[in-house]
Amino acid sequence: MSRPELQAPPEIYYGDIEAKKYTNNSRIQQIQADMTYRALELLNLPPDEPAFLLDIGCGSGLSGEILDDEGYTWVGVDVAPSMLEVALEREVEGDLFLQDIGQGFGFRPGSFDGAISISVIQWLLNAETSHPTSSPPHRLARFFTTLHSALRNPSRAILQFYPTSDDQIQLITSIAQKAGFGGGVVVDYPNSKKARKVFLCLFVGSGGAQQVPKGLEGESPEEEERAKFEKRRERIKKREKDGKRKSIKGKDWILKKKELYRQRGKESVPRDSKFTGRKRKPVF
Amino acid sequence: MVRLITHNLLACHAKGCTSNNFPLQFKDVAIEIREAEFNPDFLRGFLARLEWGALVDAARQLGDTSLPPEVPDMLDDDFLKSLHHVLLEIHVEEGAMICPNCQHVYAISNGIPNMLLAEHEIG
C-alpha cells in the first residue's frame, strides 16, 4: 500500500469514512499519543506555567486531547473538514480552524508559546495543481515564514513527520532556516525500521543558545520485548510440551478405510486381525 | 468554537492584505456560552499579548459590555472573571468574519471558521 499522501490530497483522503477509521484505530491512537508526549517533551515548556499552543494538523483531536489533559490551552488547524467534524463530536477544548497550512497562517506576531504537529508536513511535499503557489517549496516557505512570525520569542516548534528520503529532510530544513528558524532534526530509534521517528525541532530566537535535543537511542521498547518469529517459536514449544502428537492414521482410521474399500467392492483388501494397525518392532 | 481569545490573534492572511487587516469584523453571528475552567495565572500571562481595544470592540459586537475601555492597573478578581468570561466562554457558532481591508469573508459554520483561500488570494 503506498503512502496516504501519495494517494490523494488530505482533505479528500481523510473523508468521512477514513476520518472515523483513523480516529477509532487503537494502534493509531497509541502511536499518536506517544508522539504527542514526546513532542511536548521536546517542546520543553517551562513547568507550571499555562501555555498557549498551536496544533498544526490537529485532525480529529487525538493530540489535542492530550494537550487538554496536560492543561494547555490550544488552537488547532486542519484542512480536512471530516476530521474536524470528528473532533467536534469528541468535544475537544481547543478552537478549531479549517485552514490549509500551505497557504500560511493569519495569526498576529507572537501569538503562541509553542507549536506541535504530528504526522503532517509530509503532506506539503506534493503539488496538487500546476499553479505556482501550489509547488512544495512555495507552500513550505509560506508555512514556515507565517509560523515563525506567529510564535513568541523565544519558543519552539516540534514537527513530527514521515520523510521518504533524505532529500525531503534537506528541503524542509533549508526552507525552515530561510524562514528564520534555528534548530535541526531529531531522530528517535534511528536503527529501528518500525519505531524510527523524525522530529523537526525548530527554535525561534535566543541566538542559537538552545541545543538541539538528542534523539532516543537503542531499540524501541516494543521491539526489545519481542524477538522476531517469537510467536511461532512459542507455538512449536507448546506443541512439544503437550507430548507426542496423536497419529492421525491410527487403528480406527485403517479399519474405517478397509471397510470403505470392501463396500466399494475393491479386491484384495487384507482381512482384519490383531496385527492390524500395529507398529512394527524397530528391527525386523 | 471561535472564542474571542483566538479572534484577538487572527488577522486576514490573503495576498497583499498586510495593513488594516485586524481585527476581523463579526457579522450575523450566533453565540453560545459554555463554561470553562477559570485560570487566573493564564489570564495574567496572556494579557500582554491581547490587543485590548480590539477585544473590547469585539465583545461589544457580541453584546458583552462588562470590559472597561482601558486595562485597569489593579487586576482584581472581578476584572479577571469578566475577562475570563469574554475570552474563553463566549463561543461564536455561526456567522462570518470579514476583513476590514480586503472584505474577504471567512464563514463560520458549526463553530469552525473556514480560513481557506482561493488560488489567486494565496500569498
From TrEMBL, chain A:
It comes from Meripilus lineatus. Keywords: Cytoplasm, Methyltransferase, Nucleus, S-adenosyl-L-methionine, Transferase. One of its GO terms (biological process) is rRNA (guanine-N7)-methylation. GO terms for cellular component: cytoplasm; nucleolus. The lineage of its organism: Eukaryota, Fungi, Dikarya, Basidiomycota, Agaricomycotina. One of its GO terms (molecular function) is rRNA (guanine) methyltransferase activity. Belongs to the class I-like SAM-binding methyltransferase superfamily. BUD23/WBSCR22 family. Pfam families: Methyltransf_11, WBS_methylT. Residues 209-249, 262-284 are annotated as: Disordered. This is S-adenosyl-L-methionine-dependent methyltransferase. SUPFAM superfamilies: S-adenosyl-L-methionine-dependent methyltransferases (SSF53335). Its main location: cytoplasm. Residues 225-249, 262-275 have a biased composition (Basic and acidic residues). It is found in: Cytoplasm; Nucleus. Residues 54-127 form the Methyltransferase type domain. InterPro entries: Bud23-like, Bud23_C, Methyltransf_11, SAM-dependent_MTases_sf. Residues 202-282 form the 18S rRNA (guanine(1575)-N(7))-methyltransferase Bud23 C-terminal domain. CDD domains: AdoMet_MTases.
Automatic annotation (TrEMBL), chain B:
InterPro entries: Trm112, Trm112-like. One of its GO terms (molecular function) is protein heterodimerization activity. GO terms for biological process: rRNA (guanine-N7)-methylation; tRNA methylation. Belongs to the TRM112 family. Interacts with TRM9. This is Trm112p-domain-containing protein. It comes from Meripilus lineatus.
